[in-house]
Amino acid sequence: MSLPGFAPDNTRLITATGQGLVAGNRLALSTRRLPAETAGVLLARGVGSDRSVAVRLVPVPQLPEDILVVPEQLALEYGLAEAPWKLRPVEAAVPATVELESPAELSLDEATRRVQNSTLLSGHVFVHGDGQGHADEWIDIDGHPFRVRSVADRSGQALNGLVSIGAQTRISVFAPGVRSAVDIVVLADCSGSMGANDIPDAREGFRIRRDLRVTRMEALKRALRTMIDARAQVDGLVTRFALVRFDLTTQVLFPGRDGMAEVTTAPGDRSLEQLRGAVTLLKHGDQPTDIGKALHRAGELLYRHGVPDNDKLIVLVSDGAHWAPMSEDRSGESVFGTEDPVSTMEELHTELGIRLHAVGISDQTLFGRWWEDYCKQQKARVEPPQHLVPNHELLQQLTDVAGGDRHRIGGVEVLEEYFAELGSGVVRSVGSPAQRRLPALQLDLGAVAAAPGRPMVDPSRRERWEARVETVLGLYSEICAASVPRLGYALFDAAPPVDLQRLRRITMSHMDFTAWLAAADKVFHERIHTSVRFPKQDPKYVAKLPLPALAEPLWDGRLGEVHGLRNFFLHNPEHEKRTEEKNRQVGEVLLKHTGMYAVGEEDAEGWQRLQGGLLGNLEGMLSEVLELLVSPPPGQGEPAPSRVVSAAPAAQASSVPTSVLGVVQQGW
Amino acid sequence: MTTAHVAAAVPVMLDLRAHRKVPGSPGGYMALWELLEPVLVTLDPRSGPRVRLDLGEEGEVGVWFLSPATAPVPFSSATPFAVRGVLEPPRVRYVCDTCRASGTTTYAPFTCTGCGTKERPGRVCDAHAVFLEGSLRASCVRHEPTCRCGRPGRVWCGGPRCRSGRAWCDDHLVPHPGDASLAYCVDCHTDRFPDCEQPGCPATGHIRCEHLGLDDARACGRRVCGEHVMRWQIYGARSKGLALCARHHRDLRGSAPEALVALVVAGTAARSQARRGNRSGGRRAAFLPRIGIVRHIFINTCQRVLDMGAVDALFVRLQDDLRRRGGRDGGNLVQTALRLLDEQAASRREDVQRFRDSHEEGRGHFARLRTLLQQSGKHELADAVRFSDYRRKSNILFVRVPQEMRSRFIGTGGAVVQELRTRLGINIQLERE
What we know:
The complex is a heterodimer of chains A (668) and B (433).
Chain A: E1 12-16, E2 26-30, E3 38-45, E4 50-60, E5 67-71, H1 72-77, E6 85-90, E7 97-101, H2 108-117, E8 125-128, E9 138-141, E10 144-152, E11 161-164, E12 170-176, E13 182-189, E14 199-200, E15 213-214, H3 216-233, E16 241-246, E17 250-254, H4 271-281, H5 291-305, E18 311-318, E19 334-336, H6 341-352, E20 354-361, H7 364-378, H8 393-401, E21 407-410, H9 412-424, E22 425-431, H10 445-450, H11 459-487, H12 497-502, H13 510-526, H14 541-544, H15 551-555, H16 558-570, H17 580-594, H18 604-630, H19 650-655, E23 662-667
Parallel strand pairs in A: 1-5, 2-4, 7-12, 13-16, 13-18, 18-20, 20-21
Antiparallel strand pairs in A: 2-5, 3-4, 3-6, 7-10, 8-11, 9-10, 12-22, 14-15, 16-17
Helix pairs in contact in A: 3-4, 3-9, 5-6, 6-8, 11-18, 13-16, 13-18, 16-17, 16-18
Chain B: E1 10-15, H1 26-40, E2 50-54, E3 60-65, E4 81-87, H2 97-101, E5 110-112, E6 122-124, E7 130-131, E8 138-139, E9 155-156, E10 167-168, E11 173-176, E12 179-185, H3 186-192, E13 207-208, E14 223-224, E15 230-232, E16 242-244, H4 246-252, H5 257-275, H6 291-302, H7 308-328, H8 332-375, H9 379-384, E17 386-391, E18 396-400, H10 406-410, H11 415-424, E19 427-430
Parallel strand pairs in B: 1-4, 18-19
Antiparallel strand pairs in B: 1-3, 2-3, 5-6, 7-8, 9-10, 11-12, 13-14, 15-16, 17-18
Helix pairs in contact in B: 5-8, 7-8
């Protein structure tokens, strides 16, 4: 895609807050400059290093051509107000599958529901992986962070780089075993066909040889052992487990009695050992299978012996069964419930909420190769017995009616991968992301269109401003030097040069001002020495100060205004419920410096007045502090600060019980 | 944008939380204000909106200037003030009724319905609160919940009937089969773990018999487990059939086609009602089976072969009958049934037409069959054989042959019918009768 890039010289930046189209990493542009939605990369020049973020660019027809609307949070985080930036539309890969990890606070059901209903997932753009196989990307869904666990293309290969979730992308949710409460019954097919040794042996460290094969049963046992090893590493919520063998009949191999049991590594608990023993006992017989009956038994175990509120999962491992849907001619016949395994599973899912994962052992290719070798050995070409040919159609049907979760088919690697994962957690399929319209742009388009372009600063005003900042920085520097001999430490800890540099910027908008305010607070409030910090509850604070007179200039409210405004403007208003009182306090500060209770977003004059007022505060405060530091040490009986009046002694109070003895404190 | 305006009086709030002698009357407040005012008028509210004033042994009084920016500067003795609110010292509002009876005052975080009056709910403190397992509902010792037998309750039953609303003693609780820490009352336990109707079956009868007449208010509802339930496969291959208990399954065979149609419609209407607005958990919408399937339902259930027109007529008759009843006293089930029948009407017409077209062709094959039989001298057989059905797609001609002539029609080792198949180029099958 060769779309032009966007930068401050050809684009005005407007920020948006609150709910609406522009939020998270969604940015809005005019359709005249961006004909269709696309992914993009926003590059912000920082001090020392550049930072980039993947963004979703959404065209909005009525938006003026030179406007780019960005979420305020993103603008603040990347310092877009004070540093050059560049936006480039880029084509993103559309993954076939995306697996998200459920956050700790949500149950698997709730997490699945939220992902299913999320309107913002389709089209979401993010960067996956760092090229070294590490990925730590999170997607916010309804205020809950879902970690991106895997992103893959159609062939199952991991996708790295810029990706965009498409309408056809299949989403699944993984709940780690530590946090998921899922009871599991593994149904192990032990029919005669499980004795076929058509599974290539793929032990770690050995090259796969065509002639080295293991039986389907051996492959299953290995995979189950992998699951047990993985489960032994997880110490999560209380969950129960059962291993059931089945052919025409069913038998619970673990736990020893009929029912389900916890598998733990607690000292003295033999469950893990018993489960390993049960896996060893698995062996194929010579009978066909009755999958319906096995599903019924597994459902009974989960319903009667599972932890009451846990999720319930059947894992059916089989090389398949010969199954064909009932023909129309047989309509009106009556069948026993378990005769039709698909109906049985559908009933278990809809009525009892039980889900199913189906794992098909072997496949037509593996079997075909094995049978070919067998015929060569026998020096005869014969048709294979039908009961040995893997047939996974029934497994597909079963997973379809049971929630459409995992359906895996393959050899040792597929089985081991599935069961290792099952030991550490559970995956649930969500399907394609919901296709709904994005919310509307939360800004008033008329107001955006009417907004003036970025104004220029009068050079003489800039000069005066810079001179004032120089004075303040000079005072700051002198205080740092003078405080060491007088107090024994520097009154302000050293500030990074970038913050001092930011103080010189004259503000043109709300966003400029907040950036300046953040720097001013960092330099003068955040870095003030801890020994002179104002302990709100301590009435003896003044007496404790190494130079008590410092309390007056430091805490008379001038520095407090800088800090109070910083908290007000930089804290996310959505996360902090602003009280009416706080709004009023800020309004009063604004009124004092600008003559207005509120300043418009792009009112450069208003923000400059406020910036100037606060700089005046700082200048006055620093001058007084410096004067105190360089003046001779005070003698005995130095007067207390005039505005802070100590409470009268108790004896005096008791003599005049019904009168006001004085002002204890006045402040914010 | 907010604009400032000058208020007539300076609004303030009094904070008496640190004051030891909170006035109990308007007069008391007036006296207190007279003490405060002379000091307040000397202050500048822009130096800080909150002031704490020392009243010696009586503690402190806080005065909050609610709108310092609009206050006149400086205050004067003529400045009017308006007290907008008073913060008083905290007092225990929710007092434990049990403690109150013994003359003490204790904060009671829980409610006890037994202690309550019409005016206020009863309260109980943590020392006197009694909790039963199964719910965080509290009561005092005197009002401890009892089982219906009169003994003290031990557990709030969380089952589908009680929903943590009734307490039960140990004797009336049945433990969850897989979790000894959980118990239900007998009724709720039976609801959650119903017995299968098959004698001696240990499985849960979680499936209800769906047998239902259009006049019935409720389905049979007998409980059957997944293994012993009989599925009457009336929806073709892709949907599970109606669940029936053993008794209703036995009754099917002797039922007339009219009764079967009514049963199919009623069962489907009930499913449709249950699934409306709730498609979660893999539930699919319920539709009446097409009449081609219904024809097979008759063949396989009551061994009756009806042509499509006759099957359609059964539905039309039922529809007319329901409309008549629906106008008078038709309940929801009848309304749903009528909706389903209306939805099915178009497909019925299509099926009947297709069937007729197919039969035209089939009757041609049948005429050739009779000719062949006559040509081979089997005149009696040619007269007795009757046309039943023809499937164009599978090229099968179904014929009816009287029982006593069936062996002659088939021939030794199937030789006669095989010869006919070969010469006609179609598959000939005898209708099951």
